[in-house]
Design brief:
It contains nine helices and seven strands; from the N terminus they run αααβαβββαβαβαβαα. By secondary structure, it is of the alpha+beta class. The protein folds into two domains: 15-73, GTP Cyclohydrolase I, Chain A, domain 1; 83-228, GTP cyclohydrolase I, C-terminal domain/NADPH-dependent 7-cyano-7-deazaguanine reductase, N-terminal domain (GTP Cyclohydrolase I, domain 2, 2-Layer Sandwich). Strands 5-2-3-6-7 form a five-stranded mixed sheet. A two-stranded antiparallel ribbon has the order 1-4. Strand 2 (101-113) and strand 3 (119-129) form a beta hairpin. It is elongated, with a radius of gyration of 20 Å. The protein binds zinc ion (2 copies).
């Protein structure tokens, strides 16, 4: 049983996580040509009703391009076969293993809010206290992207990333910080000024150790401030 736990592909076969593990089976979406043609008709109808002239050189193909963009922006539903590779490291045990964190970021992401199907986008920072596995920034970027490129909300996206990472790394702790702007509110004048939504997620040692959280947020905060100035 202990062996299985350390294998990220079979880790944590506990009932509650079944839904989160869908990404381990890659499932390409298939839309038939007939369906696609019909959808283009729907998109054209909607765009025209909103006021878009569809008979100009710039817009004649817009319904099809709109659908393609929507399809590409939601490819996270298909999973990611190249994702699950954590590198072995050595848990030295003792106090150091319990408190030394790795912080990676900023990882840019683009997502679609499930309430309006409008974009929200921003940056993620990931922290973890490694036990016997570490993971590179490119894999972390893939992980964030896979859960971002869907219709979702910032909170769910965050807990999915955190849960998946906990499972892949079997770490002593996992932390995630997300900051994003949501166009569904900003483009429609619901809020006047640019506003950033920030969410944090904690697992394992981060839950019990305020100093770890503070250190993580200090690193993430310093980077994002620098990033946005
Ligand atoms: Zn929205
Ligand atoms: Zn350890």
């Amino acid at each position: 049983m202990a062996e299985r736990e350390l294998d990220p592909t079979v880790g944590a076969l506990r009932g509650e996580d079944v839904e989160d593990r869908d990404w381990e089976r890659v499932q390409p979406r298939r839309i038939s040509d007939a369906d696609w043609k019909r959808f283009e008709g729907y998109a054209a109808e909607i765009l025209r009703a909103m006021g878009m002239p569809l008979d100009t050189p710039g817009t004649a193909k817009t319904p099809g391009r709109f659908l393609s963009a929507l399809f590409d922006s939601t490819e996270g539903y298909e999973g990611d076969a190249k994702l699950v590779t954590a590198f072995p490291t050595e848990c030295r045990g003792g106090p150091d293993c319990e408190i030394s964190q790795v912080v990676e970021g900023p990882i840019p992401f683009y997502s679609l809010c499930e309430h309006h199907a409008f974009p929200f986008f921003g940056h993620a920072f990931i922290g973890y206290v490694a036990h016997e596995h570490i993971i590179g920034i490119s894999k972390l970027t893939r992980l964030v992207r896979m859960f971002a490129r869907r219709f979702t909300v910032q909170e769910r996206m965050g807990s999915e990333i955190t849960n998946a990472l906990s499972r892949i790394l079997q770490a002593h702790g996992v932390a995630l910080y997300l900051e994003a702007v949501h166009l569904c509110t900003q483009m429609r004048g619901v809020r006047e000024s640019e506003q950033t939504t920030r969410t944090t997620f904690w697992r394992g040692n981060y839950e019990a150790t305020p100093a770890l959280r503070e250190e993580f947020l200090a690193i993430a905060g310093a980077h994002t401030n620098g990033h946005r100035s």
